[in-house]
Amino acid sequence: MSALDILIILLRVAFGAFVPLSFVAVLVWMERRGAAFFQDRAGPNRCNVYGIRAGGLIQNLADGIKLIFKEDIVPGHIQHKLYFILAPMLVFITALLCFAVIPFADVLVLGDREYVMQAVPMDVGILWFLAVVGFGVYGIILAGWSSHNKYGVLGGLRAAAQVISYEIPMGLSLVSLLAVYGTVDLSAIAQYQGQLLFGFIPAWGFVLQPLGVIIFIVAAFAETNRTPFDLAEGESEIVAGYHVEYSSMKFALFFMGEYVAMFVSSALIVTLYFGSYQIPWLSTETLVAHARPVVILLMIGLPVIAYFFAGWIKKNNRTHYYRADDPRSRETAIYVSLLWSLVVVLEVILLIYLIFAAGGAADRILVLLLQIGSFLIKTFLMCFVYVWVRWTLPRFRYDQLQKIGWEKMLPLALLNIFITGAIIVSFS
Amino acid sequence: MAEMVKLFVNGQEVEVESGKNLIDALKVVGIEIPHFCYHPALGADGNCRMCLVGIEDGRPPIVPACKTPVQAGMKVLLDAEHIKKIQHDVLEFELINHPIDCPVCDQAGECSLQDYYMKYSLDDSRMRVDQVAKAKRMDFGCGVVHDQERCVLCARCVRFTRQITKTGELGIVNRTDAARVTIFPGRPLNNRYALNIVDLCPVGAMTSQDFRFRQRVWFLKKDASICHGCSRGCNIYIDHHREKYKDDIIYRFRPRTNLLVNGYFICDAGRLSYKEENENRQVTSLIEGRQAPFDETIAAIRQKLDQARKPLILISPDCSLEQMWAVRRVSTLYGASLSGFSDAYVKAGDGDDFLINDDKAANRRGLELLGIKTDRKSFIEALQKTDLFVNFNNDLHFSGVDEEIDALLGTVQSIAVCSHQRDVFKTASIILPIASYSEYGGTIINQDYVLQAFAKAVVKNEAGKDMLEVTRLLGGAVIDARHAWPGIRKSVACLADVDPAAIPAEGIKLQTGEDANVGA
Amino acid sequence: MSIKVRVVERKGRTFLEQLYLVEVVKGMTVTLGHFFRNLLDNSRLYVRHYPEVKPEISPRWRGRHRLTRHEDGSVKCVACFMCQTNCPSNCIMIEAGERFDGRSEKMPVKFDIDLLECIYCGYCVEACPMDAIRMDTGIFSVTSNSRESLLIGLEQLMETPGGFSEVDYHKGGG
Predict the structure, then answer these.
(1) Cα–Cα distance for residue pair A85/A253, rounded to 1 Å
(2) Do B490 and B448 share a structural domain?
(3) How far, in Å, CA of A353 to CA of A340, rounded?
């Protein structure tokens, strides 16, 4: 094993572990500011460090500090303290583990060696995901039961029933998808989606499986306990459901677990149905072959994007009432200068690349970074859909939830398998 | 039992006692006739005209109820239009020069004028001329403050000083709207019952300097009790109130009518003795001057009593009968000698022929009936022999230092179970706080052998325990006041058929023969 | 005479509506419209930037209490305890004393209001025979770092000026 091998492994694992974690902060921020904008409010925008609010991101820092320093209460009536403490860990860790098998870039070829861009290079892929996600709900059930609280138990029960109901259509929709791809390895699935259908349509999952994608997304919402399927913590009926007795960092683990799960299932949806890390019409080989024009396009595109972004910042980052010597205009100036210096740095790096390093391994790494970027942007957008849905749709009633699961989604998923099977058989 | 007669009020037949006037007789059956000047203790004066009632087919047809004795077959009209008009007009007349300063008047809430106005008048004033201004805030002495503007000239106060105290300090001078109650120049009220004037006054003209502005009366909780100021055992109301975030404190004592004991009045000293209940209270348990938890203090006392060779227990003559009984049981339990020595409570020459007694001990008769020795000689003998002196709230310094006893006390170890901080308890090595008489219930016997019961009124934040509870914790068998009675009945002949739960409000006059005093 | 019967058409029974997805997409379009409108120009948010921009308070608003004064600066209150008697949350605690300025016989020596207990019902203002207690300070945010400091006394109640002119107060707002 060479030093390069070890470095790549370290980078992969670090990516798999830290990207979901840092996305938690981004997602919480997106949820709160997003919710506010959906509802014509402003959202948290007061927390600042020396006047820098970072659009409200500093609020997360404050929340984090608060949660860490809050009293960690274990209620006196709890009989199984071990399970009570274990539950939030289980929820969080399983959510994090799911991400391990998701590829975030194409196989990196350096010299004669190939590196699979997954935190854990496993070919069981989707099976791993199903297994671990299914295990995650044990954390919720355990939390509800060990809380020794009627709301907690009800929340846990609801979660259990819901997950059972929705894992079936989810699994069935995957069956038809796997029949199309012919593999369970997520890397292979991602590579498959780099092809073009009829020469001009990217062969992404949602094109191949239009019904399956809807079933899978709905089931994924239910799996992550997000609105409109968040009955397990329905605050209007059962206070907070399974985490009603939790406080401080134990609650924070549930909270973070929910966002990690949301991120991971977004990543999976992207991987399965939205072309994974693929940039449409630009497969890995095309990119490697045409690295120079791509870079030149980037160098032109960056300042344009930065120009509009700076304009947006200037327009919106100001005080909307009279304030002498508005401190937010100073803040804006800082943001804009930071933005432009970032652009300059990137331009210089790209220029150096163009002049000195073009061709060979550097092209490969460039493509790797572009694909990681593409993957993260897609996942981010999918997460936005989660937020968007949450602040648009009301919660289902429990009977509606079960009715949709068993009476609508299950037959549809079976129908989907039948149609897919028929098409595949007729074409082969 | 007085003879009963039947008469008609507003056409309805009622049966009342004969020999009384209409106001008193009808009050018993719940019919109220408004009046200012009449008071059962002072008799009818007939000056206020508020109590005018109609007599159907009578001659004269309108009579003052206070001066009219009940007669069989009388047809009294109270709600006829012309009677209502009389009441209405009398009230309008009284209110012509009344300042209507109810918001700042202490009487508001227990004012006859206010109540009658709300009930019989409710009209705006028709007067368009300035009101006659008179003196306000006049100091009449003895803590009585007079407001001439509020006065309705019922002369209750004047009659009180003439008939009851026979001192006659007050009089009404001038006529018409210049008439006013006043004292003679340079001769203020000077008698020991003067504050009863404040109670007698139907309006806010007489207020007590002591109670003035301290609390509004409608906040006060009024509990019946018995004054422990002397051996008369006057019946009182304890008016107390717990203000938010504060302690339950007593604001005043008022006399409670009991014709068997005190009539309608109490003395000023007794009235002001409520301050004793609020101030200077022992609230913490002390062992050798160190604050100690209650349980630890009790344990320490038990240990001391167990170790003592010949303890002496001294009991206060203010204790209730049940407490005395419980302490007596404890003294036999520990083989202690028991004394009720309380000569200090007697202030010779202080009493008078009305209510005030020489003897300031509330329950000396109880000591006597229970056979607890109170004489000086036996107490001093016991004190000489003892090695542990336990004082149950007996203030030996009540009327000054007794040097002979103090010298003896200095030689023995002493324990004080006391409700107040007093000089005599300061030398005690262990001090245990207990409740005072406003905070427990029990029975006491006054000097005339009238047995009276009183109930717990005040609940303090840092409530001292009842002495009964202390004796129980010291190993005594008496759990509560009721539990003491079988034993008391057995040992005291004249209490043999007394049910403590069924003692009437005016008390029971005990039949004491020569043999009844001996006890067990 | 027959009872008028109006048949209300139940919505949500058509196939498209039963399918949910179409309606879901419709709803999501609406919210997304709001999102982008606000994202692109946040001056269009329907918010008041509260701590800096204070809302306009009507004279009828029941804010923090104050005790009014006579022209010479002496307290109007005569300690009649009407407010304390009327107070449904028992948050007013008065101690009365003698008064010698000739306006009355009685005045408060202590007048405490526990703002944490107060429910701002305004009964004290209604009860006052002297117009001595008012809730017209316009102070609507009663916050502090300690419980003790929210038990305000006579001094503080008298110091606070009214938030409105006498004319506006008696008119009771527009």
Answers:
(1) 11
(2) yes
(3) 20
Residue ranges making up the domain that contains A388: 75-278+360-427
CB contact (8 A) between residue A37 and residue C24: no
Q: Is residue A262 part of a domain?
A: yes
Confidence of residue B520 (pLDDT cuts 50, 70, 90): very low
At residue B298, what is the residue type?
A: I
Indicate which of C75, C78, C81 best probes the interface with B, i.e. most B CBs within 10 Å of its own CB: C81
Same domain for B173 and B294: no
Taking residues B238-243, report their average pLDDT: 93
In chain C, residues with a C-beta closer than 8 Å to the C-beta of A312 are 40
Provide the domain limits for residue B143. Answer: 102-208
Residues B20, B121 within the same domain: no
The arithmetic mean of pLDDT across residues B423-444, rounded, is: 91
User: How far is the alpha carbon of B80 from chain C, nearest alpha carbon, in Å?
Assistant: 35
pLDDT tier at B238, thresholds 50, 70, 90: very high
Q: Which residues of chain C make contact with A316, given a CB cutoff of 8 A? A: 40-43
Is residue C109 exposed (0-12), middle (13-18) or buried (19+ Cβ within 10 Å)? middle
Which residues of chain A are modeled with pLDDT < 50? none
CB half-sphere exposure, C137, CA atoms < 13 A: 21
Question: Encoding tokens for residue B87?
Answer: 């009441």
pLDDT at A183: 85
Domain limit, last residue, from B63, B94, B125: B94
Q: What is the pLDDT of residue C1?
A: 60
- Could you give the CA distance from residue B484 to residue B471 in angstroms, rounded to a whole number? 12
Cβ-based contacts of C34 with chain A (< 8 Å): 37-40
**Is there a domain that residue A112 lies in?**
yes
User: Do both B344 and B411 map to the same domain?
Assistant: yes
User: Residue A245 is inside which H or E element, if any?
Assistant: none
* Cβ separation A40–C47 shorter than 8 A: yes
Domain boundary among B94, B114, B145: B94
Q: What is the CATH number of the domain that holds B351?
A: 3.40.50.740
Q: What is the pLDDT of residues C36-76, one digit of tens each?
A: 998 888 888 888 888 888 888 888 889 999 999 999 989 99
Mean of pLDDT over chain A: 86
Tens-digit pLDDT profile for residues A234-247? 777 788 778 888 88
Q: What is the pLDDT of residues C109-154, one digit of tens each?
A: 999 999 999 999 999 999 999 899 999 888 888 899 999 899 999 9
Instruction: Give bridge partners of residue B312 from the DSSP assignment.
Output: B337, B389
Q: Do B190 and B141 form a contact (C-beta atoms < 8 A)?
A: yes
**Are the Cβ atoms of C47 and A37 closer than 8 angstroms?**
no
Give how far A42 is from chain C: nearest CA, Å: 7
Partners of residue C114 in chain B, C-beta under 8 Å? 244
B452, β-bridge pairs: B444
* ipTM field: 0.82
Task: Give the number of beta-carbon pairs within 8 Å between A and C.
Answer: 57
**Is B73 in the same domain as B140?**
no
